[in-house]
Amino acid sequence: MTEVKVHKTCADRFVEEEVSGDSLVAFKKTDILDLGIKHGPAVKIISYLESLRDGLQRDQFPAYVENWTKEQVHQWLLQHVNAYSKYAIRLQEEDVSGDCLVCFKKQDLLDLEVKSGPAVKILSNLRQLSKDQEPTLQPIPHNEQKEAPNPIQPEVSVAQTVASDPAEPFNTTEVQADKMLGKKSGKAQQQFKKASEEKKSDEPKPQNFKARRKETMVVNCLHCFTHSYTLQGLTLKPFSHMHSYKYLDNFNVYFISCTLLLISSVLLVLPKALTLSVLFSHITFIFVILRFSQHLLSRDKKKEANQGDKLKNLLTCGGNSLDNYDNMIIVVNKSSPEQVQYLKFLNKLKLFCVLDFDPDSNTQVGLCHSYRESRWANLHTPSQYQGQIDSVIKNLNLYKQTSWVFCNGRHDLEGDSNKELNYWNWVRKSCSDVEQLVSFICNPEVLLHGRSLIMFLLLSPVDSEKDPIFETYRAFMKKTEEEMIIHICESQIYELSLSEVNGTVLALRPFSESSERLLPSSDSSFVVLKNKDEDLLTALDILCLNQCENIYEDNSPEFNDKRTKVEEEFYRGGKVKWWNFFFCDKDKQRPFIKRDKYENLKRMIRSELRESKEMCVLLNLFHNPGCGGTTLAMHVMWDLRKEIRCAVLKDNSLPMTEVAVQVVKLMKLENEKPCQVLLLIDDSKETENPYEICNCIPQTVESYSNINVDKAQSCKVIILNCVRSQNPKDSYRRHNPSQYITASLSPEEQNEFEKKLNELRETHDTPENFYSFMIMKSNFDKKYIDDLVHNTLENFDFSSKNAKLFSFLALLNTYVTESEISRSLCEDFLGMKRIRWQEESALDRMEPFSNLLIIDRVEEWGVYEGIRILHSSIASACLEEFERSHSLKVSDITIEVLHCDLFFSIAVVKKRFMDSIQQMLIARQQKKDGVVREPFSPLIDKIHSEQGRQTVQQIFVKASSRFEKSASIPQALARYLYIKEHDFPEALKWAEKAKNIKANPYTFDTIGQIHKSNLRSNNDRGKQETSCNPEDLNTNIKIASNAITAFKKAQELANSEEEPEEEAVDESDDYPRKSYNVKGYVGVLEIAFLVFEILSRLPFFDQRDPMKKTYFQSFLKKAIPITSVYKEDNERNNIYEEIIKEHERFLQNLKTEVKETFELLDCFFTYIKGRNSEFQTKNHSIACDLFKRYERRLFLEKNQADTFAGILQHLDKPAEEIERITECYAYLQKQHHQLNDKKQKTKETINCILSNIVLYLLKPNSKHVKSIDSLSDLLSTTLQDVGLRYPFPDPYYLALLLFWPRTTEEDTEIATYVTAIRNSTRKYLTPLFQKRSTVAHLYLGKEKGLKRLVSKPQLDENFKKMRRETLAQLWRNGDIFKDKTIINRLQRVRGSIEQGRCLPIMEN
């Protein structure tokens, strides 16, 4: 193709694909790209084709332009067009030389992902070249050798290219930088030039590199440091464009995390983009190149000597420990068995993942197989890294275990999909998956803002750019933004063999720690904890008996420095570490403070291990936040580590079954006989999860081992459950065995803290500034804390960034336990450029508040650093000070947090912060009874009490817009509106919104609860109203129907979920997650009983009328329709009838539904053990109360004991019946606090008194009979409540029975009750008594108390032998009272009858 003049390899591709002329004319640009031809030549070929095909004249450009190489095009774009470097790099990668560029149209640039603006600018500048003079192009410095400049020459080998290319000098930009940097910079530049010249002269000629695998290497390193930082749309320029270079003088090659490229052959030629290579602000590229040129080595050997130290500096950022890196990623190709033996240092690295291009890596001689002999790695493919980031992390167990990703086949597995692919097939089939994998790794949400090391480990030759390794490298480069590039410097390392590299890395800390970690075993022996075993126990942080030993030489400067740092961090307010106990053990004169409960707790643990017959025992340690509960638990665990295997649960959210499996594995590790285990669960939210572990562990032992649980005395697990509590003493009383510790020191403890302060003064300059320690030493003195806060906040100005951030931390740390804001997020908020890894940089910017702040390492989503206030009491005191001295309320701070856009963009560290904000708004504390929780979070309670609905609703509405995918916020607002404000329509609107976001049992239950509250409110109002509105009945039935529908749906969803899905902090109703179970059933029952109560007040269902009550029961039992119910014929009743007819099916199904639901709940509570015992206790209590009321009332109705007259009829029935009736009324009396119907309460109280009287007469020794005093008091209270105008004579009849004066007493009140009974009888019973005589059931006897009451059946007992008819005649004519037996038993009352009234006269 001499006319077009493309590279020979391009022409060869057309020949290989049999492209003839008649085929070529049909080609489009995409067809040429599909041949693997780069974009530049493809555009040129198509341009020439179109000119020939259409007979058009191509645009003319100066000859010098068409002679430009792709490097010169790159230079022109950067130096004259001022295009972004990423666009210049992109064109260079696509072989866009000058003769190709002149053929480009705007669409061709857009196809290369160049934006429209730069594309138009490039083409405009290109056309302008025809009018201007030839521009001067300055070479751009780079660290790889220049490629062959002539595009029409046959392609030569890469080795020849490297050997023959001349080195290029610096460009003008670098020269200008030299002037600004001064002599140091100039000197470095001269060294760079010199090195480049020497490299050219000493470059070896092409040879058979495959036959020359030597272990000597040259390390050629690039340190790239980045700083791109964007705040509110403003992008800061790179350092090269700034006026000040003051920071660069402080730079060295060890200031940030690195990307390390190890290459075992000179055959790798890195792309031009390498000179601008950087991933993002926390990752930088360093390249280490292995070469095999002996004469080059001998020259460089004279040049530099201590290469081992230099390599250590590169890997440790100038320190002596690999702990500088939080995540390490390895990209590796094919290895040989000889090399694998020198790669053991990989076992010691914190590997996040390995991208392996060796399909034999997991075979017997491969690198993966070697690694997995001593460490654990999960085997994955690139396609598994697609999807939601948090889902991928969870599914692949990232951060917890190494992920080994096979990027080009696996020969240890069968199948075509596991075969190794050549380059072209790999590009077609696998490249996109690997690119997505790289995109995942480079996402800031994955590597977070820690320090990361990416290592390209090339163990076999790469002799062409057409290699998957290059494509992978380019994939990393595509994630680079030009704005993130500041500076590149060069350093070289020579003369280390691969075995020396291996040994050098292995010697770095923390890997000089004692080679073996030890665990206690049976019979006072010890076993080694292998790395691989520890890798598998991802849920546990295992405490070894030789923890922290042999890392520092005792009393060495490093040892003392470490001790000082650890002590200062802890006593300031940091979390306690095993190092704290280790250092105190080393110095017996300065022991760790033992709290008073230390010995008790240790004694309890040993006692349970020795005496308990249970395999798993739960010990609860309840403590106030910030009083040292966790420290006490860890102190006890440290001192028991040589007796029992100890571990801390890392993640409380893990499934308890999984935790149980790992605990059992720890129990059996390296020993046939199981060992005892002490597991610390720190600050679990509720005590149910540990109970679940206790249940799981015995099952796991039986399922996963051959241990005989009954015989294995050593097979015991003690769970030390360390729980934050606002009321530790109350929690302690409810749980056994348990211990507690409060925010109050005993005199002995105060003495120990005073002694420790004196010790700290000997080793620390100002221990009085260790505020967390000083707070405890002052015995949590409120005045000390307030004075400290007041002095610190004296010049507080909420308008400043640091003051706002401090107020955010105060709010968060007060209302959310274990909360912090990530350091990177704080730096972003403060507008800081992350240009150096300065540990205190963020704290420096937080002056003058930084003395109250500390940086913690957060072990979540890998590792990141978070900033928090030293102590929770300081945080809460800050909020008080804000309001007291600066008129800043917690609501103001909350609204400001929600207003800040920065906090609510997508990122993992931001997600944790967002979760904390959400938890602050909705998480509720348990009440003192420990069974139910407070209605709202403490923050919302405070804002409501101070500012009311408007502010609370404003906060929730704003939060709902921030947490658009969370149902918890609108759900919490709905609860607030119906509970606090009784605004049911508005509450329902927000509950529906929550349900639309996530339809789960909780959101549907909230809808049901709103309807229930609305119905209950209407019912209570209806009881107070004298007249009823039929439309209210219609409204209430519709509300009840909607409520039951919601509760049924909630129950249906709860039943259909094997495991209710986990959603962060989505526990905003009256139950914790995974504990819904039967709440829906209980809700249905509550609604049904409310409906029954509402219906019972209708005129034709009035429960006070036995006949109407019978109609009501018959209607509910579907025995009669509403039309058959007798009722007065009036307009109101007719409307009621029509309404009930409309809802008849719903209403008549309620009774059956109640019965079936009670039967189901009876089975549930009898046979099923609830997950959350405290919550199920509440559910069980509600259900039982409803059931008992339902069951007892059914019993009373069935036995005609629900009326006063019905109870009197039991005077001549078996005593067992009235005993059961009395028991029922006693229960109903206890439930009266839940009963809103005052009339029903009075009626049941009166019946209760009478049932006691009847029971006494039939069975005086029954345990259910109340004393005469109790009954008299109850009746007196009732009489006061009802007054003297009660519609029925029942209470006054009881007054005559209980209060009738004895012959020696004078009681003027009895006349009042006589009048009252006469009035009530005359009004309601006279029509029934006309022309009828009354029946006397009880008579006044001569005894005291209840004994003075005599029933007619008791008197009849004296005349057993008399015929029934004769006895009846005696009663009718009054002759019965002439009998001596009757005269002796009854009390005679004298009086007269005047105008139909009986007037008794007291004998005294």
Automatic annotation (TrEMBL):
Residues 68-114 form the SAM domain. Residues 194-205 have a biased composition (Basic and acidic residues). GO terms for cellular component: cytoplasm. Keywords: Membrane, Transmembrane, Transmembrane helix. This is SAM domain-containing protein. Residues 132-151, 176-210, 1013-1032 are annotated as: Disordered. The chain crosses the membrane at residues 251-270.
